[in-house]
Design goal:
Layout lengths: L4 H11 L6 H43 L2 E5 L7 H10 L3 E16 L2 E10 L1 H6 L1 H4 L2 E4 L10 E5 H7 L6 E12 L2 E15 L4 H4 L2 E5 H8 L7 E6 L5 H11 L4 E5 H4 L1 H39 L1 H9 L4 H32 L1 H12 L6 H4 L10 H27 L3 H5 L3
Parallel strand pairs: 3-8, 5-7
Antiparallel strand pairs: 1-9, 1-10, 2-3, 2-6, 2-9, 4-7, 5-8, 6-7
Helix pairs in contact: 1-13, 2-11, 2-13, 2-16, 11-13, 11-16, 13-16
């Protein structure tokens, strides 16, 4: 909004508190604070919600792929042919044969439910989700027949195991005897401990070479599923439709949306709900701007009458008060951005401080899935927040500015 020189002079004068106008300044300060807190809250909450969704997607999909080809009965006999068909499908970046089986693991008298994950050695080596999260040991020690496995950090903590400890895995489907089925027990050496960052994975996963998993489960040369990654996760269904038609007689293709539909749908609904609720803070702040401008107009009625008698047009008076309201909204937005991004940058320290003061864990990995509070600001959402605040601030100035512009100099100055 472009102001004339005399309009800028009046604008600056009205923004500063004059003698006897402290209450008006306090009201404007509250409006500024409300806008700042509303913007900061929106930036923080939306960035955290985006970070949660992004981290969950990256880690879940990074370990489980965009889709899986799962055989009927939990087995794919001719998995090499299915693997070739998957890799030959246009849009498929990679395909990985997998074995996953829930079993029991024991160490030093402690027993935990585990999820054995068998992968080929090349796939273990090039899996970014695993390789970038090794806390102790090395994944290079996982070779067929070596008896080495890698386990999640939470599982290691629950069992009290470290690198070099021997983990006994119990497979209930063991050998048959005249007295019944005897569970199969095999001891493995823990050669690596990883932390993916998803609590449910870190507390259960035991990664081993494919051949060792097949021997443990007595499956022969079979796999349970083939993990597939595509060039575009949002078009995974369209990309894998030809593959699904080819393997329809022996397997089913499930993508990440169907496997985690409830989780990501809940996150999307919560994200929209939080945006709407926190936007009410901005709406309340705009009402504060209206009230502070109305008080300012009433205090400056005589000044406006004098300006009008000196030849100032109505639109000039309107621009002055609209500029005042917009300046409060813009200043509050800038301050809110600074506060919001500062708290996001120091979010882990802030979280630990609040936990220390309250004595309550605010980010429990067993409930939140993720081990750390994530953050991912979205430029589009930040822009939408800024536009929304400016629009609300502009609308809040219309009525007070209109009343100021329609001041009747005769009625105001008749008794002066």
């Amino acid at each position: 909004m472009i102001l004339r020189p005399y309009e800028r002079t009046i604008f600056k004068r009205y923004l500063l508190p004059q003698r006897g106008e402290g209450f008006i300044f306090v009201a404007a300060a509250f409006s500024f604070t409300a806008v700042m807190l509303g913007v900061a809250a929106l930036v923080i909450v939306m960035s955290v919600m985006n970070g949660v969704r992004s981290d969950l997607f990256d880690k879940i999909v990074g370990l489980n792929g965009h889709a899986v080809v799962q055989g009927f009965g939990g087995r794919i006999d001719d998995w090499q042919d299915v693997l070739k068909q998957a890799k030959a499908t246009p849009g498929v970046v990679s395909a990985t044969p997998l074995i996953e089986q829930p079993l029991l693991g024991t160490f030093s008298g402690r027993v935990e439910g585990i999820l054995v994950r068998g992968m080929t050695v090349p796939d273990i080596r090039k899996n970014e989700t695993l390789n970038g999260k090794v806390l102790q040991g090395s994944l290079n020690t996982l070779t067929p027949g070596s008896g080495n496995v890698a386990i999640g950090s939470e599982l290691a903590r629950n069992l009290g195991a470290t690198v070099g400890s021997n983990l006994t895995i119990i497979n209930p489907a063991g050998r048959s005897t005249p007295f019944g089925t005897v569970p199969r027990e095999i001891s493995y050496r823990i050669s690596a401990i990883f932390e993916i960052g998803v609590y449910d994975f870190d507390k259960a996963y035991v990664v081993m070479p494919m051949e060792d998993a097949q021997l443990l489960l007595l499956t022969g040369d079979q796999v349970q599923m083939i993990e597939v990654k595509t060039s575009d996760p949002d078009k995974v269904g369209e990309i894998l439709r030809p593959l699904a038609e080819k393997v329809a007689a022996k397997a089913v293709v499930s993508d990440w949306r169907s496997m985690n539909a409830s989780l990501f749908e809940a996150l999307s609904i919560e994200r929209v709900a939080m945006f709407v609720i926190l936007s009410l803070i901005i709406l309340v702040a705009s009402f504060n701007i209206i009230s502070s401008l109305i008080m300012l107009v009433r205090a400056k009625t005589r000044d406006m009458a004098i300006l009008r008698t000196m030849g100032a047009p109505r639109d000039s008076v309107m621009r002055i008060f609209m500029a005042i309201g917009l300046s409060i909204g813009i200043a509050g937005t800038v301050a809110g951005m600074i506060v919001g991004f500062s708290l996001l940058y120091f979010r882990q320290g802030v979280l630990r401080s609040v936990e220390f003061l309250t004595g309550q864990p605010l980010w429990d990995p067993s409930i939140r899935f993720l081990t750390e509070l994530p953050s991912k600001p979205d430029p589009v959402e930040i822009t939408a927040i800024v536009i929304m605040v400016i629009v609300f601030s502009f609308l809040a100035t219309l009525y007070p500015a209109y009343k100021a512009a329609n001041t009747d100099p005769v009625q105001v100055l008749r008794y002066e």
